[in-house]
Amino acid sequence: MDPPLKFIHNQIVEYSMQVTYNPLENEGTVVYNLFLTPETEREYAIQTIRRVAAAGITVGDMVRFIEPGETVEGYTVPNGMIGICTLCSITLDGILLRRGIVTNPIGGGVIEVESNLPRRFTHMILYESTTFDPLQVMASQDLTSVNQVMRQGDGFILGNVRECHMEAENILAEVLDECADSHFSGILEVGMPNASILGVPVSPQYLGVVALGGTNPFAAMKEEGHPVTTLAIKGLMDSSLMEPISHF
């Protein structure tokens, strides 16, 4: 019997229930993205991740490098390539769930930035309607200008949005403050109850939360013509296996 289709919304819910990460202690299980690039691109990738993290356009600064032939969560990195694991913003849904805040992941897409401020989503794919990660799709379509945002403050970056009940607003603020002081960051915008956020409508009595995509550093690499393959929302990993990009 063939396995049933699994939409990204279901995958996010499954992973978020297994996240144990505590941002204040920087301990526990996180959701990660995996990126593949030739070994010759290692130094360029390190410098790019540093620049994007310093500009605050990604999900924290934690990474893990997987050498050629090594295996991570059952996936073996091909010869001649290196794997780079980064924090996935879906980890946020798990962090909130552990604090009693149930989120409804809405979708991921491209965010227009003007004068260093997020303005609106220009493209979006709903999680409940796709079996592919939306940010992986968007990054492959040459829709971003992450480097331009870093240089000029205007352009297009990747992000996603979820909603939670407005009764959780006070606890949400506490959790986001904790994340802001940790290695897990990248919260871009928090909406008002019963109001759309960056042009995306939310359910009645809910508020929206927009997070940056952990794929942004690699969208920046692709923009400059460097080869990279994205495997977003790849799996779960203990954060102790990751290090700040400044250590490399």
From TrEMBL:
Residues 5-243 form the NrpR regulatory domain. InterPro entries: NRD, NrpR, NrpR_dom_sf. It holds the Pfam family NRD1_2. This is DUF128 domain-containing protein. It comes from Methanocalculus taiwanensis. The lineage of its organism: Archaea, Methanobacteriati, Methanobacteriota, Stenosarchaea group, Methanomicrobia.
